[in-house]
Input
Amino acid sequence: MYDVVIVGAGVSGCAIARELARYDASVCVIERAEDVCCGTSKANSAIVHAGFDAQPGSLMAKLNVEGNRLMYEWARELNFAVLPVGSLVVCVSEETRPGLDELLARGQANGVPDLRIVERDELLAMEPNIADEAVAALWAPTGGIVDPFGLTVALAENAAANGVDFRFNAAVTAVERTSAGWAVHAGDDVVEARAVVNAAGVYADELHGMFVALADGSPASEAVPTVAAEPLQIVPRKGEYYLLDTTAGAHVRHTVFMLPTAMGKGVLVSPTVHGNLIVGPTATDIEDKEAVNTTPAGLAEVASKCSLTVKDVPLREVITTFAGLRAHQEKHDFVIGEVAGTRGLFDCAAIESPGLTSAPAIGVMVSSMVATRLGLAHKPEGSFDPTRPGVVNLAITSFDDWDELCRQDSKFGNIICRCCRVSEAQIVDVIHRNPAATSLDAIKRRTGATMGRCQGGFCTPKIMEILERELGVDASEVTKRGPGSELVVGRNKDRLPQPAGALEGGDAR
Amino acid sequence: MSAAIERRAIVVVGGGPAGLAAAIAAYEAGEHDVLILERDTQLGGILNQCIHNGFGLHTFKEELTGPEYAQRFIDRADELGIERRLGTMVLDISSERVVTTVSAANGIDRIQAGAVVLAMGCRERPRGALATPGYRPAGVYSAGTAQRLVNIEGQLPGREVVILGSGDIGLIMARRMTLEGAHVACVAEIMPYSGGLKRNIVQCLDDFGIPLLLSHTVVDVEGRDRVEAVTIAQVDERLKPIPGTEVRYPCDTLMLSVGLLPENELSREAGVELSPVTRGPVVDQSLQTSVAGIFACGNVLHVHDLVDFVSQEAAAAGTQAARYVMADAEEASASRGIPVAATDGVRYTVPSFIDPQRMDDTLTVRFRVANEFRDRYVSVYLDDERIQHRKKRVMAPGEMEQVVLKRADLLAREGLSQITVKLEEA
Output
């Protein structure tokens, strides 16, 4: 019996778990995928939004601005990569300039610091590759870029280090009322808890439906916001992206957005914390919550729209394309609160952009809501450790420091991923952390291995060997991203008819 | 890391076929202070996983497997006592030829080299670089990665295979997968001609009844966790898929052989000028790059089809590197030479500059053509005068061509300003 079960180990779920770990409470995160950060959290623009976009007074506006502030603070405690590169919203025609002023006013109303309009000359100095049509831009110095995997993993590791349990490969199939609270059926398990938090991303509407079915009119708490016990619909909104090689990473220095025109919304062009250039996304509402495939139309749209704000984007330097699904809801605001008529069933739903930026603030808000409802007390002073050791990043380590690392562990001298400079030491490190990285993609998200220009061509077999050795498994059990994504299907010739007498022939293979 | 910087006459970056041949040639040219740096735990490079035969026909007049071919060079290097550091990856080369390495054994080391020979080879173009639409499941492998899994690890990457791209590794892997018990449905090639050697199409596809679909490409990859099917469509002259021609192939594996890219990250850091066509360094008749004392050979210079030619080219680079360190600096910093222009169906030449004063009596100029050609002449012009005119029945981008220039011819032309290699119809 836990105090709290959180459904979903995306960035919201992990942030809530980390913040709940400050309280004297038992907490469990259950996740349908094999690792943290496998849904919306892993495939997005990786932007720390400044907060000028959301409507003043909305929950989104409040949590964005607060999340932005906390993001930079937490990066120091939790050692994930965030860079305050600042963002520009570029106006490409004089007719739309009023829109820029409107955005400035909205940002100021939301409490975004240091916003101002930059005119073309200054803009050109800031971004030499800006489109010829650009006339001015809104400059938001508090905008930034973040490693979404690093952030989510850091939150999860810190939560785990402070006592939170994680269960993976456990999709929720049902929620039941018990005498003491709630029973969540997940995979082969039934997990009981006094409170359940729905942080299920694009599936949050289905879980919300299960919650609503359990509402019995029990009174709400005045101290806790409520969510109406009505149907909620989350629409998967697909966004497709190009990721370009680090050779193109300096094509822009800031995150460049386009001020929408009558022609449409445009796409962003931004450096990433890994040194790449990201271009996208599209926005297409779909039905299939698993459809993270890229499409010819989507990729063509990104390729054509990026030139509206930035000149000569070197798309030929593409190293991968990908698609992510935002958890879009019609009203376009976060849905956070206790479901009316239940006691202890909480929604944290419709967390679409700027959800990644808002995650720290969401963690604080939801944890305090749950703590209030359950009457949880803070842990005694000093018994919550807010820090988490980062994973070494050799790409930004000086040769002297690297040499010192090799003295401590010679595995730092054995490079596995040559494109991103990841050594055996980092890979072994993340395999043995909690939550553990047990697949190729889990290792990728934590170390960057396979993320470079060869996309795992050289290092995939080497990482497979390390996983086999460290986990004590056979190659056929090593996966790209959990059960069903095995990397090899068997041994050479294992289904060929064996020649007569082969065994007597002494062939030991 | 020791405080004192180590000094070596010649540092060869890479212990594959190019690095081995370069090191041996440098030693044989009289410079015995040669060091090979190899990131793998053994010498031989990619040849170690090329267990098929067909190597060495030019060099040894016999058909060897890749490991056998490599072993001949490793044996020779052993015989000469050429030093090598295995498990050692080069992290940086400065324009002053300071080479920084990392290894489990020694951590970070710095070496001041008299000359550097770049022999890092190439890598495969990945699926992501094609921006192929669809899902990104397990079971999408570049052919070389699959080759390593099968030939070195004994692991079968899949049972029902579609191959995109008809580069030589893809063709070789079509046969290999078949021999290991998998079924290869087809090889799709976006171009109207194959990117591989004719003999590989015959021996690896035709002999096994594997269809080669020219002017076809993959337009969709299905399967969220593991490949479940791919869709192949015909393309038009502009290489755009033609609607209505799609055919779906249920399979568990998509293998890619869609091009090799010289691996020049270190060259770029060293300030070496790269060719946008080959993506390898721009070199002169000595295979010297734009940075004095840095030479290049093998697949890092331009992608080869035959290892025999890699060995020949690398031996030349090694010899020139030895001459460089043994000569005085003045000769070394001579002018760049006469530009070699590649025109009329010739995509590039290696080298791109020739100084007749400093070339050997003969010089092999290697090149590739831009399309499939029949009954064309390969011509060499010294300024406006044609000095070579040789008919070739068939030329294709997948097969490297060469011309041999004579020093005497070049010296005989006063004020020579351009050498041109081109194709002519008559």
In short: The two ends of chain B are 62 Å apart (CA to CA).
